[in-house]
Write a structure and sequence with these properties.
- Helix content is about 65%, strand content about 0%.
- The protein has 10 helices and no strands.
Length: about 210
């Protein structure tokens, strides 16, 4: 089943990595590893926020904002690094708060051998992309506040309550209407489509 991490091995993911790398001057492999860490962390923080009515209402309002309707990912030129960082800073501050944001980047930056400020930027730039995928699916399935937990779980790859249509359309790199072969190639190390590469290889140092 598709998950948010599969996005990184698509053409859209490559464009995002390129944009983030240019903004932070970090190498693309390091950026990819940082994004692979950032997406699940942000999703987990969102899930924790759903434990309160206020947090759930806030996320619902964010997803209903037209900025997060999925159009951000329709064209790689939309992934402007300045926009991603400025918009992402607001999102991350809202989801995590300044203190947790700083604690997160300071504790994880040594593991990635990356400057704290660069990791903070990467987490910020991941946030609008994540909300675009969630917002697109929320509109498609008309997910209400009480169903947000299932929506987050689907994007995390934890359940199949929703089909994550925007994510799956991005993963269908050869345009044949099926993501099964594309995802299989990513996981097993095939090179179908322009992106090629393996999720397992990319994150464990393999080819």
């Amino acid at each position: 089943m598709a998950s948010i991490l599969d996005l990184l091995n698509t053409n859209t993911g490559e464009a995002l990595i390129e944009s983030v790398s240019g903004k932070t001057s970090e190498k693309k492999d390091a950026v990819k590893s940082a994004l692979a860490m950032a997406f699940p962390l942000l999703l987990s923080a969102m899930k924790r926020n759903l434990e309160s009515k206020e947090g759930a209402a806030s996320l619902q309002a964010a997803l209903e904002n037209e900025k997060h309707n999925g159009s951000l990912l329709e064209n790689s030129s939309n992934l402007d690094p300045d926009y991603l960082q400025n918009e992402g800073e607001k999102i991350v501050n809202h989801i995590l708060g300044a203190q947790k944001r700083d604690q997160l980047s300071s504790s994880l930056s040594p593991a990635l051998n990356m400057k704290q400020e660069n990791l903070a930027r990467i987490i910020q730039m991941a946030a609008p992309v994540l909300l675009s995928i969630l917002g697109s699916q929320q509109r498609k399935d008309r997910v209400q506040q009480e169903g947000l937990g299932d929506l987050l779980g689907t994007v995390m790859g934890a359940n199949s309550k929703h089909d994550t249509s925007l994510l799956e359309s991005l993963l269908d790199r050869d345009g044949d209407g099926s993501v099964i072969d594309d995802i299989g190639g990513m996981i097993l190390g095939g090179n179908k489509g322009k992106s090629g590469g393996s999720i397992l290889g990319g994150f464990t140092g393999g080819k």
